[in-house]
Amino acid sequence: MEATQDKPIPGGNTVRVEFEDGIAWVHLDRPEKRNAMSMEMARDMNAVLDALELDDRCGVIVLTGSGEAFSAGMDLQGFFRASDAVSDVERHRAYRETRAWQWRTLMFYAKPTIAMVNGWCFGGAFTPLICCDLAITDEAATFGLSEINWGIIPGGVVSKAISTLMGDREALYYVMTGEKFDGARAKELGLVNEAVPADRLKARTRELAKVLLEKNPTTLRQARMAYKYAREMNWELAAEYLTAKGDQTTFVDKEKGREKGMVQFLDEKTYKPGLGNYKREGE
Ligand code: COA
User: Fold this and answer.
1) What is the pLDDT of residues 130-149, one digit of tens each?
2) Which residues of 71-98 are buried (b: 16+ CB within 10 A; e: fewer)?
3) What pLDDT is recorded for position 4?
4) Which residue, 12, 14, 115, 123, could crosslink 135 as a Cys pair with Cβ 3.0–4.6 Å?
């Protein structure tokens, strides 16, 4: 692996990144504003995600928030009021920059992503939460589609995002009432993989990140992309696409995982794919 120790740490005024053994902990970093997402934060997050995609110090991203919040949603001042006050073209740009990091980039990111929800998670914050591959929350965190409480709809792309994970009855209930709910309920609703006590949140997230870091990164990326694209297709298209994607994975995988797995299971009888990873180079 290329030496990257001297590389600057990406970030900005509103995002803080820490590296730890292949994990990039990406903090939305405006704790005094409960990490409300401003126009500046969109620019910083786009720069950070672009940089981390090519940074060897990052094998998996954990997206979280500094202080008491994951994020209190879109910044009413630094996004809504600020973008109302600029030209139509600048407003268009602010929305484009927000869409870029919150869903387009995250959803199809080259590296695996985990949202770690600590504290408040409101409105617009549901979009990056849902667009991360996996999510873990503090069971006592507070979630809410609070838009209705202040006269707007769950916009951006929040209404679309929640419909991919929540059932219609539950989604409409929270869209229409604006009622808050806790992390344990977020787990029941399918918004997160796990809800754990606050004092286990970081350790459990680290554990999960390490599992991902042990996988063949090429296969892991292809598997994530295959799932995300195939779910938009009908069965016929999905079957053709997945067959082709499987062949492409074998072709681009420098580790030759498929071949190694078969040799180790069928010929050497040294591992069982149902029970764990094949032995990778250097292990
Ligand atoms: N946009 C802009 N500023 C926000 C914000 C948001 N979404 N959420 C919090 N802030 C600011 C507050 O205005 C306050 O700023 P100030 O210190 O300059 O007055 C600061 O962050 C701290 O917020 P405060 O309300 O005092 O913190 P709290 O811990 O008592 O309450 C929340 C936290 C999240 C419950 C509350 O701030 C809140 O309801 N925020 C709005 C959540 C929301 O509806 N988001 C949806 C937007 S799409």
Assistant:
1) 999 999 999 999 999 999 99
2) bbbbbbebbbebbeeeeeeeeebbbebb
3) 52
4) 115
**Where in the chain are the domains?**
15-213, 217-267
Whether the predicted pLDDT of 72 surpasses 50: yes
Answering whether pTM is above 0.90, one says: yes
| Residue whose CA lies nearest to ligand 1 atom number 6 | 75
The pLDDT of residue 71: 98
The answer to whether 197 touches 139, Cβ cutoff 8 Å, is yes
Residue nearest ligand 1's atom 27 by CA:
34
Query: Residues 100, 104, 109, CA angle at the centre, nearest 5°?
Result: 110
* Angstrom distance (rounded) from CA 111 to CA 132: 10
pLDDT above 60 for 3: no
How many residues make up the chain in this entry?
A: 283
Sign of CA dihedral 13, 16, 29, 81: positive
Query: Ligand 1 test: best mutation among 14, 28, 33, 34, most atoms within 8 Å of CB?
Result: 34
Sequence letter at residue 22: G
| CATH fold for domain 15-213 | 2-enoyl-CoA Hydratase; Chain A, domain 1 (3.90.226)
Contact indicator for 148, 177 with CB cutoff of 8 Å: yes
- With a Cβ cut-off of 6 Å, ligand 1 is lined by 33-34, 36, 72-77, 120, 122-124, 146-147
The answer to whether 20 touches 59, Cβ cutoff 8 Å, is no
Helix or strand holding residue 137 (H, E)? strand 134-138
